[in-house]
TrEMBL record:
The keyword Hydrolase applies. This is NUDIX hydrolase. Residues 69-201 form the Nudix hydrolase domain. The keyword Hydrolase applies.
Amino acid sequence: MNKNTPEWLKIARELHAMSQVGLEYAQNGYETERYVRLRELAAEIISKQSMLSEEEIQESFAMQPGYITPKIDVRAAVIRDGEILLVQEANDGRWSLPGGWADVGDTPSEAIIREVREESGYDVRVLSVVGIYDANRVPDETMMPFYHAYKLLFLCKIEGGKIRPSHETPDVGFFELNELPPLSKYRTNRGIIEDAFAQADDSSKRTVFE
């Protein structure tokens, strides 16, 4: 697991994963009771370290039954004339690469094409994979989400459309690397933006992975 992940979050994630797997394969009521208790402990740990209540966390856990695996976050790096496309996130006012959780039924490239269109108004074509990252590699440990996730970053090219903000992304713009706005670190950090510029400048660069 990422070395920047705080110990409390490592423990909570492991307890949550154990509880979900256990609930999936529990053979009797006693086993189910034990695994439900593990899930409650995970929620209690996270609640004490965040602004979320145990009830909110439990509700979120309950929405993802079955064998638990990392979630997939897809992001697009759209670079035009030396500037990168960013969208402003409504829930924190900060900026990120367009993207979000991949939906069941989509290929990764279909997911990112849809996300860019919905969040920015642009139609894009996927050129390459910039990197595959541990999405929880966030400099500020207090901002880490409690779900483990992988981030897939695609280099994309605009094929059509025009800037069109949405209710989730009230502003859209292009920014130079040395003039980035405040980033929404849950979603985008400077390091992956630098990787995107590096590949855009040199297509022979290999995909970054962790």
